[in-house]
Inverse folding.
């Protein structure tokens, strides 16, 4: 026999419970059976979230490509300060994403600040400030610290997901950038013989071209260091580039299983 009692004012009725069960929650969608499933996200939205996330190596890759493009496209004297600014951003974001140790971040911040001041002074006062060689060597050290921090972070991750793949590619490209600025710094300080012989000490465009063709062992042969330490650095880059590509990147890609999403980021969020 039914009781004629109405639902209590503070208690939801059975009809409200049924309506709530079939109402999709934010981030979820319900099918005809009422089962809640994760809402599929648009690829553009996922890309924007990856670029804005401090845990994503997509931003690092974007800054590395921007540094390369600006270094090749802009050859005016004023462009050096802009290129240094993008380099600073790339290294800073890399160390932040890789969760580098605090002493490393502190040293990198001091070096970045010094490089930024020298670049700004060169932009304002022109050639009257002799700091170009210092900026080049600081750039070398920063581009050396960044891939080391990225590799350390990847080794501490518990899962191999898309972020791990992006991180491995970022470390590989960072290594190529490091050797490019190393060649440029050596060429600027090496008076005789010129770093590339008859081609002169080498512009940043030539150094980037030579570095990445050496890293991938393509070796077109149009640019060749004529002596040491350039030849020794080139051999070192060839060996490290092949070892990293064949061992590290290949292993990461082979172990990657699409669909793991950002689970690895949640698991290793406590790494320091």
């Amino acid at each position: 026999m039914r009781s004629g009692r109405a639902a209590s004012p503070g208690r939801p009725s059975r009809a409200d419970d049924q309506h709530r069960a079939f109402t999709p929650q934010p981030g979820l969608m319900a099918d005809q059976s009422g089962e809640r499933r994760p809402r599929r996200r648009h690829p553009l939205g996922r890309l924007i979230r990856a670029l804005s996330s401090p845990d994503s190596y997509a931003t690092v890759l974007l800054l590395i490509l921007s540094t390369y493009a600006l270094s090749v496209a802009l050859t005016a004297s004023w462009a050096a300060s802009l290129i240094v600014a993008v380099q600073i951003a790339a290294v800073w974001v890399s160390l932040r994403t890789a969760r580098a140790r605090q002493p490393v971040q502190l040293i990198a911040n001091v070096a970045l600040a010094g490089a930024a001041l020298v670049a700004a002074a060169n932009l304002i006062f022109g050639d009257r400030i002799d700091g170009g060689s210092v900026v080049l060597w600081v750039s070398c050290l920063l581009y050396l610290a960044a891939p080391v921090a990225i590799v350390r972070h990847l080794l501490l991750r518990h899962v191999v997901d898309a972020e791990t793949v992006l991180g491995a590619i970022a470390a590989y490209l960072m290594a190529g950038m490091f050797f490019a600025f190393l060649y440029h710094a050596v060429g600027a300080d090496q008076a005789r013989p010129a770093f590339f012989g008859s081609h002169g000490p080498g512009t940043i465009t030539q150094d980037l071209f030579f570095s990445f063709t050496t890293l991938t062992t393509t070796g077109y042969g149009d640019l060749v260091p004529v002596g040491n330490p350039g030849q020794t650095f080139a051999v070192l880059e060839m060996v490290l580039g092949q070892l990293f590509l064949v061992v590290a990147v290949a292993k990461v890609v082979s172990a990657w299983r699409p669909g793991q999403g950002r689970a690895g980021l949640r698991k290793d969020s406590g790494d320091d």
User: Anything to note?
Assistant: The first helix runs from residue 14 to 21. The mean pLDDT is 76. The chain has ten helices and two strands. The chain has one domain: 44-267.
